[in-house]
Amino acid sequence: SFPELFEKKNYELRIAGGAVRDLLSGMTPQDVDFATTATPAEMKEMFTSAGVRLINNKGEKHGTITARLHEQNFEITTLRIDVVTDGRHAEVEFTTDWEKDAERRDLTVNSMFLGLDGMLYDFFNGYEDLKNKKIRFVGKATARIQEDYLRILRYFRFYGRIAEKPDDHEPTTLQAIKENAKGLAGISGERIWVELKKILLGNHVNHMVRLLYELDVAQYIGLPLNGSLEELDRVTKNIQNLCPKPMTVLASLFKVKDDVTNLDLRLKISKEEKNLGLFLVKYRQELSKAVGPEPLRPYQDFIMDSREANTNSKIWELLKYQGEEQLLKEMQQWTVPSFPVSGHDLRKMGVSSGKEIGTALQQLRDEWKKSGYHMDKEELLSCLKKL
């Protein structure tokens, strides 16, 4: 195993960062990253002579080597100090001092190391904070934020994942965020969108987004200046247990479709995300359940009339937005019926011209729709005789 390689050479190797946080919270970490006192050059030499395959992924100048073992990738990073930071990326130099490496990490809960023998190395009270569900920057918030302004959003993301109460922030942290919010203007839209999506799917989302506005962050990350916070309130209650897409939550802030376009200009969201946003803004009011025995009819008609592929999933998101849990379940079980009559059937009945066939099919489609898509081929064709 690769830990033995390190041990043989007297390099120290520990699990680092988020994986330690997850393990201590009793969760299975998604990625396990390692930190070591060995330099990239030393690691390369050691792995190569042991016949371990290395994957080239440009991480080397930051000190990261990726080794491929037993069908898994292991990322191992040399301990480092950030020498120069510009609010986006850092120039690093290597060190053998574990505390120095912990010191340049963002949040205390992400700054711990775990020895492979189970020993915890925790220089900044991260374990205590994790147990108390406290999210704090390592050292001074201002300094951490100015090293990489994206950390403002990481703060909110981890708050939404770990904190128990919605409003349990240190005033100095909020102050530091407010004073440095405009630094986010220099961060790429793609990086921001990755973090924002995770915030939108976390806990306390209503509170988090309100804070983004209160602390002047919203304007720098593409959110509408006068986002509709009342609608956000309503929608976050609606979608509580419905697993919405991030855009479904976000759409509550938008008043007009330009809000979606502006977000896209800043964050470069995917085409599918943009279309969902536009769809929700357009139909959230005018497409709603019918009064009477067939509440789903308007949605089903919409899907049947739609010429686009993924209308189904857009309708599901609309039902989540509207908080229609029961209808959503029914809608997810509904399969789009296929129209039972073809031009071929009409030719057999002696309708010959293409134009007449087109007209007849359209009329039959209307009848079929009126019947709630229940009429079968026989009924429809006998209906044609009447027409």
What can you see in these coordinates?
Belongs to the tRNA nucleotidyltransferase/poly(A) polymerase family. Its cofactor is Mg(2+). It holds the Pfam family PolyA_pol. Keywords: Magnesium, Metal-binding, Nucleotide-binding, Nucleotidyltransferase, RNA-binding, Transferase, tRNA processing. The chain has 387 residues and is an alpha+beta fold. It folds into 4 domains: 1-132, Beta Polymerase, domain 2 (2-Layer Sandwich), CATH 3.30.460.10; 140-221, cca-adding enzyme, domain 2, CATH 1.10.3090; 225-336, cca-adding enzyme, domain 2 (Orthogonal Bundle), CATH 1.10.3090; 343-385, no CATH class. The chain has 20 helices and 9 strands. The strands form 2 sheets. A 7-stranded mixed beta sheet has the order 3-4-5-2-1-8-9. The protein is elongated and about 90 Å long. The model has no long low-confidence stretch (mean pLDDT 92).
- Approximately what portion of the residues adopt beta-strand conformation? 5-15%
Supply the CATH architecture of the largest domain: 2-Layer Sandwich
Rg calculated over all Cα atoms: 28 Å
CATH class descriptor name of the largest domain: Alpha Beta
- Summarize model confidence as the mean pLDDT: 92
Q: Give, in order, the helices and strands.
A: HEHEHEEEEEHEEHHHHHHHHHHHHHHHH
The number of distinct helices, counting runs of at least 4 residues, comes to 20
Principal-axis shape equals elongated
> So, the CATH homologous superfamily of the largest domain?
Beta Polymerase, domain 2
CATH topology grouping of the largest domain = Beta Polymerase, domain 2
For the secondary structure, the number of strands is 9
Tell me the strand order in the biggest sheet: 3-4-5-2-1-8-9
Number of domains: 4
Which class of secondary structure composition applies to the elements?
alpha+beta
Largest sheet: 7 strands, mixed
Q: Distance N terminus to C terminus?
A: 78 Å
Low-confidence stretches: none
Protein name: TRNT1 nucleotidyltransferase
Family: Belongs to the tRNA nucleotidyltransferase/poly(A) polymerase family.
Pfam families: PolyA_pol, PolyA_pol_RNAbd
GO molecular function, one term: tRNA binding
